[in-house]
């Protein structure tokens, strides 16, 4: 057999802008892209641009840095001169022809949910990082033909097929996108995966897995189905006619990216047999699915029409990501995957993470949202002191808002009713909402003004008053020490890179003495000490005692005399009050679906959770 004939769609089926993606040599990590453009003006230069970011991940990623070997020609194959006019725009001389063909290669070796990855095991690509657009023609339909390199590689994407998959996948398959937004919003997985499918409300859902791990796929399908059913019931039906879960398993990986008809989940696969790891995987899956409503269709004005060429600023990511992060576990609770006790444990772990972040007193949620383009995705040694995550604090503020609305409305309203109201008003018709619309929806649900709450917790940096909101529900938050003999407070953080200090907490004894991130820990009171045994060694000291800490600072050995502070609580638990009034019982049951008293008392206990990486 020779090279198989490429069976693409008939020319009459192709859009005026048609892409072909090949990957003939996966070992070189280069995706080959061809774009045929019809109906161009022969007399004027033609500009083509690549996005600088992809929706759902708010950082300018400069995808154009991976483009190479750009070429342009007329339909007849006559080469056309071109030049770059800015970092991500190519300008072709007036073509003298109404049809132009452009070819380029894209280096694809960054395994994240928002970039491209090609190796001997699969190809995965995101439109924003691969497909050039002609400014002004983004609303036109696009067609795409994908040509796998091997007969056992198949194509998985939420794009609508234009042709059926052929017996020999290497002959290619074509798809159609109604416009550039849909093309960008539809990642493509090509590889030897198996497709698992299930239906909810008659709508097909597909799950494909790439990579190695201990995921029990049958169980994941059953749990995904329960999560879809619960989320559909929450919003009153499914907003799509098909949905794909693309799962990438890779050691140490974590992330998710939401799309209208699909999601990509990146997760560390080798621990997935462990209940806690699997639970977090399901939370991630529920999170990205929830985005099919909240963010992809119910979206802020700033995202109503996307500008791919620059930052799109918005101040309500604390709601877009925070509410979604809160509901990722609410949905698991309501789907019967989490117990109420488990659910409260997750909340108390989140409280612990926020309370160990000094930056919560420095940056508000609104600032964190607006500045995400330069801050959240670019953490550095002072992030802990100067920033707060709109995922973490956003989830906790949305939770408190839920409790507050339930209390103010006597259990009639909730964050559920506010979200359902927003969905009806804005989500169903995909009309962008303003920050004012958002607040009005919460106030309608509460039947009260929420100005004070917003000023303190969204626009301001006031400490969250958990117990004020918990008391009407018969619950209380308690702070504890994770060790039986608590260690005096010093303020150093290590991230596992040997004895190098990764961050020093502002205002801590270590910071005030002159120690800072990057310093390398050497000795405590003249004896060698390491990141691994520092805490244990400090248990021998009392608060206010002065220690001598020796470090290498820029390779110079230095000694610092530091008075220790008293220990600080580092874990939190949500506990049930000993006696509940009927009103407290009613609110607690309304929120959690059951009373948690006996269950919580038996399950509760301090335990630590490591900091989560950023998800989308
Ligand atoms: Zn998200």
**Through-space gap between termini:** 46 Å
Residue fraction in strands: 15-25%
By oligomeric state, this entry counts as single chain
Shape: globular
| Molecules bound to protein | zinc ion
Q: Helix/strand-derived class? A: alpha+beta
Mean pLDDT: 94
Main beta sheet, described?
Answer: 7 strands, mixed
Overview of this structure, please?
This protein has about 625 residues and is α+β, with helices and mostly antiparallel strands. Helix content is about 25%, strand content about 25%. The chain has 16 helices and 27 strands. It has a 7-stranded mixed sheet with strand order 4-7-2-1-10-13-12. The chain is globular and about 80 Å long. Residues about 1-5 and about 600-615 have low confidence and may be disordered. Zinc ion (ZN) binds near residues 258, 291, 321, 615 and 616.
Keywords:
disordered N terminus; 24% strand; binds zinc ion; five-stranded mixed sheet; 616 residues; single chain; alpha+beta; disordered C terminus
């Amino acid at each position: 057999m020779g090279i198989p004939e490429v069976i693409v769609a008939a020319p009459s089926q192709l859009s005026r802008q048609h892409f072909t993606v090949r990957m003939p040599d996966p070992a070189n990590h280069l995706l080959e892209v061809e774009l045929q453009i019809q109906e161009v003006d022969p007399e004027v230069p033609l500009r083509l641009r690549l996005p600088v970011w992809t929706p759902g991940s708010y950082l300018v990623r400069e995808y154009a840095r991976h483009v190479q070997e750009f070429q342009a020609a007329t339909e007849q194959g006559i080469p056309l001169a071109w030049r770059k006019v800015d970092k991500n725009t190519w300008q072709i001389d007036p073509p003298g022809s109404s049809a132009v063909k452009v070819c380029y290669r894209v280096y694809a070796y960054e395994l994240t949910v928002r970039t491209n990855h090609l190796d001997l095991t699969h190809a995965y690509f995101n439109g924003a990082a691969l497909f050039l657009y002609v400014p002004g023609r983004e609303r036109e339909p696009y067609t795409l033909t994908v040509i796998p390199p091997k007969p056992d590689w198949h194509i998985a994407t939420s794009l609508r097929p234009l042709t059926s998959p052929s017996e020999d996948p290497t002959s290619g398959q074509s798809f159609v996108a109604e416009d550039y937004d849909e093309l960008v919003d539809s990642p493509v997985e090509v590889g030897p995966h198996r497709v698992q499918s299930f239906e909810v409300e008659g709508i097909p859902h597909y799950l494909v897995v790439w990579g190695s791990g201990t995921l029990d796929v049958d169980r994941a399908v059953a749990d995904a189905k329960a999560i879809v059913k619960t989320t559909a019931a929450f919003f009153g039906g499914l907003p799509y006619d098909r949905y794909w879960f693309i799962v990438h398993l890779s050691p140490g990986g974590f992330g998710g990216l939401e799309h209208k008809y699909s999601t990509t989940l990146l997760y560390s696969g080798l621990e997935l047999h462990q209940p806690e790891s699997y639970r977090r995987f399901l939370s991630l899956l529920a999170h990205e699915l929830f985005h099919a409503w909240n963010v992809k269709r119910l979206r802020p004005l700033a995202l109503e029409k996307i500008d791919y060429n620059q930052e799109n600023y918005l101040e309500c990511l604390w709601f877009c990501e925070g509410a979604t992060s809160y509901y990722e576990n609410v949905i698991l609770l309501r789907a019967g995957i989490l117990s109420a006790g488990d659910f409260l444990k997750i909340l108390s772990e989140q409280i612990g993470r926020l309370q160990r972040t000094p930056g919560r007193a420095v940056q508000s949620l609104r600032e964190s949202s607006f500045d995400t383009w330069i801050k959240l995705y670019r953490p550095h040694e002072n992030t802990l002191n100067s920033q707060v995550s709109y995922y973490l604090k956003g989830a906790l503020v949305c939770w408190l808002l839920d409790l507050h609305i339930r209390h103010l409305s006597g259990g009639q309203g909730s964050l559920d009713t506010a979200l359902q109201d927003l969905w009806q008003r804005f989500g169903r018709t995909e009309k962008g909402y303003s920050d004012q619309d958002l607040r009005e929806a919460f106030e309608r649900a509460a039947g009260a003004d929420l100005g004070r709450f917003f000023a303190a917790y969204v626009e301001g940096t006031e400490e969250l008053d958990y117990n004020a909101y918990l008391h009407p529900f018969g619950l209380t938050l308690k702070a504890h020490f994770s060790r039986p003999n608590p260690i005096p407070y010093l303020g150093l953080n290590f991230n596992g890179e040997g004895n190098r200090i990764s961050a020093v907490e502002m205002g801590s004894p270590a910071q005030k003495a002159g120690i800072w991130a990057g310093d390398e820990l050497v000795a405590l009171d003249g004896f060698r000490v390491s990141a691994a045994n520092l805490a244990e060694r400090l248990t021998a000291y009392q608060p206010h005692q002065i220690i001598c800490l020796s470090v290498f600072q820029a390779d110079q050995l230095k000694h610092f005399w530091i008075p220790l502070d008293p220990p600080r609580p580092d874990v939190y638990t949500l506990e049930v009050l000993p006696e509940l009034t009927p009103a407290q019982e009613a609110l607690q049951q309304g929120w959690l679906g059951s009373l948690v008293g006996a269950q919580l008392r038996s399950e509760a206990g301090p335990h630590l959770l490591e900091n989560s990486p950023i998800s989308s």
